[in-house]
Design brief:
The chain has a single domain, classed as Rossmann fold, CATH 3.40.50. Strand 3, helix 4 and strand 4 form a beta-alpha-beta unit. The protein starts with a strand and ends with a helix. The longest helix is centred in the last third of the chain and has 16 residues. It has five helices and five strands. Helix 3 runs parallel beside helix 4. By secondary structure, the chain is an alpha/beta fold. It binds 1,3,4-trihydroxy-5-OXO-cyclohexanecarboxylic acid. The site of 1,3,4-trihydroxy-5-OXO-cyclohexanecarboxylic acid has 10 residues, from loops.
């Protein structure tokens, strides 16, 4: 049985570190991913990370995860607020699904208040900066123990 977590990063997250540091902090995406990977490996998981600025790439990564992964942790960036196609893709994945955000979209501009993904995931963790990823891993650990 696979113990792989697919960690998905959507548009513009490749610019973390220099993109709106007052909102997203100064850590780069690589730093977030490596920290997540280290904690995940300690907890007995492997991690496959995919970042793309293209919706279709993220959808195809979810399709591939249907055979390979026990969990998807997704920060879809702004696609969170618009992508019904990504929500449909997540609906086809039977494992644990956690939506994660560095910032708290609910406390920001109105267009960020809708998550098209919210109904397709087990739950969302938002607003804790880098700690959001640690909490997402904790959620994966607890939910995969149960299933
Ligand atoms: C984000 C929040 C989104 O609203 C935004 O478009 C992002 C990053 C976050 O991690 O806080 O790109 O997902």
């Amino acid at each position: 049985m696979s113990n792989e977590i697919l960690l998905l990063s959507g548009p513009n997250l490749d610019l973390l570190g220099s993109r709106n540091p007052e909102v997203y902090g100064t850590q780069t995406l690589d730093e977030h991913v490596e920290h997540f990977r280290q904690l995940a490996v300690e907890a007995g998981f492997s991690v496959r990370h995919v970042q793309s600025n293209f919706e279709g790439d993220l959808i195809e990564a979810v399709h591939a995860a249907r055979d390979d992964a026990v969990a998807v942790v997704i920060n879809a960036g702004a696609l969170t607020h618009s992508s019904w196609a990504l929500a449909d893709a997540l609906d086809t994945f039977d494992g644990v699904k956690i939506e994660v955000h560095l910032s708290n979209p609910a406390a920001r501009e109105p267009f960020r208040h809708l998550s098209t993904l919210a109904g397709s995931v087990n739950g969302s963790i938002a607003g804790f900066g880098a700690t959001s990823y640690e909490l997402a891993l904790d959620a994966v650990r607890r939910l995969t123990e149960k299933s």
